[in-house]
Amino acid sequence: METNVNSHLSKLLSLSLLLLASTLNPAAWLPSVLPGAQTDFLQEMTAIFLSIIIEAFPLVLIGVIVSSFIHIFISDKLIHRLLPRSSMIGIACGSLLGIFFPLCECGIIPIVRRLIQKGVPAYIAVPFMLAAPVINPLVGFSTYLAFNSSYDMLVYRFVGTFVSANLIGILLYTGGTKSAVLTSYTEGHSCGHSGCGCSHEHSQHHPGLLIRLRDMLYHTCDEFFDMGRFLLIGSFLAAVIQVTVPRTLLLSVGQEPIVSILGMMGFAFVISVCSQADAFIAAPFAASFTPGAIASFLIYGPMLDIKNVIMMFTAFKVYYVIKLILLITTIVFLLSLLINYLPHLWEVFALA
């Protein structure tokens, strides 16, 4: 118990230091110690970094609260009873769960990690992780508005995401790996019972509601700091790259069918913006880029960007994250090529 208290006190101290640092105004003293160009660079980078953090942190907090609720209040037996018996149906259902749980990619990783710990197969949990940030009502509405109330890009995005998530789930299922996919750190912190060394027999221990709520809050705090520190690192890297890489480089390759897709996928990975807002960033490029390139930005970004890849490495083993990166990149690229070279095939979906 003393170790647990000390851990939370250290986190409270960290928050206090961050709050103190936020009161220091760089604009007041940076110009006096740095040349003007460097000051502008730092101010722009700081603005981008803070915008990513302000956008992402509430979503991460929601994600870890849901994750902690699942961990404390929902039993493994209940989850197993709810799982479809058919693996293929389970993969499809996992891809559509975002309709009921409209979470951003920042908050989905803690939930998926918890579901896998509870016994949900990775080939069902991963499609949920990939599709939920896109296939949900909020993202659908924002995409529809961003592209001037046109259904075409909305259909490209939803169908492309659903197909990608299902293909990845099927490939993970047919791969048939039985080795653990979560990190040893994750597996070692799966208990969540305050003061517990994971030697208690929890099936015989049924604490009261207040104790369980307390444990949920403790677990939320622990998981928020675990995810939050890597979100900070990823957001900082995204801000640095956004400031240093000129967007004119993207515009120079906008109409090339293959290179434009790769350029927009790279842009989506770097910019690390929330799936509920990325359509408004992509829309101005629609006149200069191929439809497949725009679709690749809208599909790939919520699945992979700098901040959520770093968060993935905290939840999954390195080999598994690399495997996911290769699968996601390859499948999204091929589907985006399909949009560019076979537009009439996708128009069938748009007219449906």
How confident is the prediction overall: mean pLDDT?
76
What is the C-alpha radius of gyration, as a whole number of Å?
22 Å
Helix run count: 18
What percent strand? under 5%
> What separation lies between the terminal Cα atoms?
59 Å
Helix content: over 70%
The biggest beta sheet reads: none
Number of domains: 1
Shape: globular
What does the oligomeric state look like here?
A: single chain
Report the strand count.
0
Helix and strand succession?
HHHHHHHHHHHHHHHHHH
The low-confidence parts are 190-204
What is the SS-derived class?
mainly alpha
Task: Describe the structure in your own words.
With 352 residues, this protein is mainly alpha-helical. It has one domain (42-191, 209-351). The protein has 18 helices and no strands. The chain starts with a helix and ends with a helix. The model is unreliable at 190-204 (pLDDT under 50).
